Structure formats: C-alpha cells, structure tokens
Amino acid sequence: MSYGEDKNFWGIPYGTEISAEAFVKDIWDPSTEEILTPKQFFGLGWGINLHALGRRVGVIK
What we know:
This protein has 61 residues and is α+β, with helices and mostly antiparallel strands. It has a domain at 11-51. The protein has 2 helices and 5 strands; from the N terminus they run ββαβββα. The strands form 2 sheets. Strands 1-2-4 form a 3-stranded antiparallel beta sheet, with no helix packed on it. A two-stranded antiparallel sheet has the order 3-5. Strand 1 (8-9) and strand 2 form a beta hairpin. The protein is globular. The N and C termini lie far apart (40 Å). This is DUF5808 domain-containing protein.
C-alpha cells in the first residue's frame, strides 16, 4: 500500500475524507472531463462524474 499523494491499494483508488464537499466532488466535478474519477469521499474504487457524463450525452453544454 502506498502512502503518497495518490491514495490506492493495489492499484484501486480509495477515499478517506468524510465531508459534503468530497461527496459532491465524487458525483459532480466540472473541472475534469473524465467520467470515472478516483474516489474522494469515503470508499473504494471510482466515482461516476455525472457532469462529464451529461456533457458527453449532450444534456449539459
């Protein structure tokens, strides 16, 4: 397990922060175009960025 800036366990990202900001950043992050982003909120894996998904589908301009 690495303890650097990128939090991951065997290549799977994890989040340790428990806050409303981290939760919102997991599901709505307009600063990136990636649909699957590493978890910020408490959990293991990737979060689905609904903002990027909406832009790709054409719902958000």
